[in-house]
């Protein structure tokens, strides 16, 4: 993971592609621990200094495994003026946005106020993160759009935050994480979906999260690589829960975006759900159609990490099932497993599908057309 992608920041300032793209998974970071304080009431500043945060699990400063690379990020992504990777707008412009011709960049902040047991503090931190995204990022570069971060374990306060931000052109989606206290279809999260549907905003479900549960269905693994491949397991559980709890049936205009967990598993999950639903549908009469229909109509997928089978035809078969209009390109900048835009698609893709993949789908989903 200690990969040096470019020899120097200066080398990145030269455009490498003319293809306009949307990058649907960019992770901005705070330069300092107290950078959110201007957006927090004195009460919460005092609370953080005296009590800190009471999380559902430890290691809130990153995924629950140590990394050889700070912030799970590229070595060459440290800003020249100092601070962690992803904390400098000017360096992000120079290293990512300008050379890659990014026309739309969707911000997905991590390590926010999600996963904190004090729900009032969680809501305050999430609201502060949203103000910070406007002040530091989206108001300074119109290519960037923010995700509304919400205190997801308190559905009512999360819905209030969504409604407060609804209509603000700085925001294009609501951001949840895949690991939560309960599976995402549970009723405690329904106010979030209702508010998002009302606002016409997609709900992005990003890998990771801090729900206090083991990160695999069978307990805590030994290695980081198990966590990396385990993201797809977690997203499958979340998606099955959303379908079988009836979220998609109840909120038919709701759009979900599965972020950073791959998509090659989607057809097999849908096939299994359809088969079991045919036999056990009497248990879930609120699920009125085969699960695959909800998934194909209401779910989009970001591409990083993108499956890379030996035969490109295998990849194309999966995408054909999902739909070329359902894929959103993402780099995961500045993280170590960043996808280079010019190299991610194999040969043999039509020009229409290529344009939709890199830009058109995202612009349509996020209402940028």
From TrEMBL:
Keywords: Lyase. InterPro entries: ACMSD, Amidohydro-rel, Metal_Hydrolase. Residues 62-89 are annotated as: Disordered. Gene3D superfamilies: Metal-dependent hydrolases (3.20.20.140). Pfam families: Amidohydro_2. Residues 23-367 form the Amidohydrolase-related domain. SUPFAM superfamilies: Metallo-dependent hydrolases (SSF51556). This is Amidohydrolase. It comes from Bradyrhizobium xenonodulans. The lineage of its organism: Bacteria, Pseudomonadati, Pseudomonadota, Alphaproteobacteria, Hyphomicrobiales.
């Amino acid at each position: 993971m200690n990969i040096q992608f470019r020899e120097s920041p200066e080398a990145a300032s030269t455009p490498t592609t003319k293809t306009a793209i949307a990058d649907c998974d960019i992770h901005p970071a705070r330069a300092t621990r107290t950078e959110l304080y201007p957006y927090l009431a004195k009460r919460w500043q005092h609370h953080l200094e005296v009590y800190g945060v009471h999380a559902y699990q430890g290691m809130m400063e990153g995924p629950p495994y140590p990394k050889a690379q700070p912030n799970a990020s590229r070595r060459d992504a440290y800003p020249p003026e100092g601070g962690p990777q992803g904390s400098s707008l000017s360096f992000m412009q120079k290293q990512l946005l300008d050379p890659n011709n990014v026309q739309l960049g969707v911000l997905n902040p991590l390590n926010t106020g999600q996963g904190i047991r004090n729900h009032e503090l969680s809501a305050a931190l999430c609201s502060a993160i949203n103000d910070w995204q406007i002040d530091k990022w989206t108001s300074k570069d119109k290519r960037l759009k923010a995700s509304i971060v919400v205190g997801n374990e308190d559905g009512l306060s999360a819905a209030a935050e969504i409604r407060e931000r609804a209509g603000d052109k700085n925001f294009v989606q609501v951001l949840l994480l895949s690991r939560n206290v309960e599976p995402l279809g549970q009723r405690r999260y329904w106010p979030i979906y209702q508010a998002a549907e009302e606002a016409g905003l997609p709900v992005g479900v990003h890998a990771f999260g801090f729900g206090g549960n083991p990160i695999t269905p069978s307990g805590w693994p030994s290695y980081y690589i198990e966590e990396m491949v385990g993201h797809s397991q977690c997203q499958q559980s979340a998606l099955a829960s959303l379908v079988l709890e009836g979220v998609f049936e109840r909120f038919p205009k709701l759009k979900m975006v599965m972020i950073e967990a791959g998509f090659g598993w989607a057809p097999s999950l849908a096939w299994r759900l359809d088969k079991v639903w045919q036999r056990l549908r009497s248990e879930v009469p609120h699920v009125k159609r085969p699960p695959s229909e909800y998934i194909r109509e209401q779910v989009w997928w970001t591409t990083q990490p993108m499956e890379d089978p030996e035969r490109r035809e295998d990849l194309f078969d999966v995408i054909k099932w999902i739909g070329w209009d359902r894929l959103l390109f993402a780099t995961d900048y500045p993280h170590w497993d960043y996808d280079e835009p010019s190299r991610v698609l194999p040969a043999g893709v039509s020009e229409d599908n290529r344009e939709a993949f890199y830009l058109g789908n995202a612009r349509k989903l996020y209402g940028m057309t």
